[in-house]
Amino acid sequence: MHWRSAAYFDLDKTVIAKSSALAFGRPFYSSGLIDRRAVLKSTYAQLVFSLAGADEQQMDKMRDAMAEMVCGWDAAQVRQIVTETLHELIDPLVYDEAVDLIEEHRLGGREIVIVSSSGSEVVGPIGTMLGVDRVIATEMGIDAGRYTGEIAFYAYGPNKAAAIREHAAASGYDLAACYAYSDSVTDIPMLETVGHPTAVNPDRGLRKVAGERGWPVVVFRRPVRLRDRIPAPPRPVAVGVGVGLAASAAVGAAVLLRRRRPA
């Protein structure tokens, strides 16, 4: 398909109402990847994330803790958990307004791209569920089917902007004709990369910058069960950068979750 330009969407608190990766804390526990204390802490982390977001220092801590936590996890097991629980956990969290906006851009001939700090095991299936065209996500190293604890690409801050520029160049898009949406001050580099940035449910820092720069500010308030809106089967989504487990804000749980050790 030939698209005229692209619309780039952050995921958490922009398209869905909560942290995508934190939502999988309980199934990870049920599968033995994390312990009960970690699940309880992830519930608390979800609350903190929803109220305050995370600054750059917290995000760096999340990244490092997540890499250490998942080292040795079976990547296929993680993908299976996400696939089996996706509709139960994520489907009810999608903003109705975001679905409308995605459809508006699709009708306008634009490629729909999710750009998230979570990894593709999480973002890819969510993108497929939403019917978007591509995802750009964090990439973690995998060797012999298990996570190595190394982060090859961290889709956060300036790295998101660099990935968008690379994607637009490869696709022949004029960035001045592209759109971007996010809730976080950490995504200012992403927003200022395109000609049409919009702050969605902005945190305090982004709201201030949006006001100073005259960027539109919108508020999404209505999570909707996606299957009620999109009865047709979702189509496959292309994965851009990212073959790793959730990382960064979407993986705020990584700061708190710990790998279960053998007794």
Notes on the protein architecture:
This protein is α/β, with parallel strands linked by helices and about 260 residues long. It has one domain: HAD superfamily/HAD-like (Rossmann fold, 3-Layer(aba) Sandwich), CATH 3.40.50.1000. The protein has 10 helices and 10 strands. Strands 1, 3, 4, 5, 6, 7, 8 and 10 form an 8-stranded mixed sheet that branches. Helix 4 runs parallel beside helix 6. The C terminus is likely disordered.
Keywords:
263 residues, alpha/beta, Rossmann fold, 8-stranded mixed beta sheet, two-stranded antiparallel sheet, 10 helices, disordered C terminus
Could you write a compact summary of the structure shown?
This protein is of the alpha/beta class. The chain has 10 helices and 10 strands.
